[in-house]
Amino acid sequence: MAKPKSKAQLLSEIRARHKRLEEKIAGMPREVFLVPRTVGAWSVKDTIVHITAWEKTLLYRYHTGLAGKPVFMPDWSIRGTLGAINRKIFEDNLSRSLDDVLADFAATYRQILATVESIPEADIFAPGKYAWTGEKKLLDYIWGNTAGHYAEHLAAIKRMKI
After folding, report:
1. Which residues contact 27 (CB under 8 A, 6 or more apart)?
2. Residue ranges per domain, the chain?
3. What is the distance between the alpha carbons of residues 57 and 73, in angstroms, rounded to a whole number?
4. This prediction's pTM
5. Confidence of residue 162 (pLDDT cuts 50, 70, 90)
6. Which fold has domain 36-158?
């Protein structure tokens, strides 16, 4: 699906895709969450940590930028930057319990919904509205860290054939 053209459509896609992800993991036996095989060495637990970390990154960037503070943005032109960030997320969360990860996943999702609901529609679709987005639309960051990201990792989890 192409990116949404309205805030209502964006919220609908975020909700629908998150629900599909929730439904998929809800039916999994707990021990399956820890088997490393969704994305390289990642388990389902690691994948959920990854999704949640990127949602938190979006929340940080949006709220920090809205407060007029400088927002850290990696230099994406440096080869391996994304991989290094994802590796750090993975390594920093290895010892977390599954219950903690799932609670964080649910709480962060609620924050995402509340935040996106609070943003004026015009601000979501205006290119360069926020200094930290450059010439991109806030939509690009919301989509890439929510609905688009959910679909990407749900597909990886489904390939596990659980």
Report:
1. none
2. 36-158
3. 10
4. 0.94
5. low
6. Four Helix Bundle (Hemerythrin (Met), subunit A) (1.20.120)
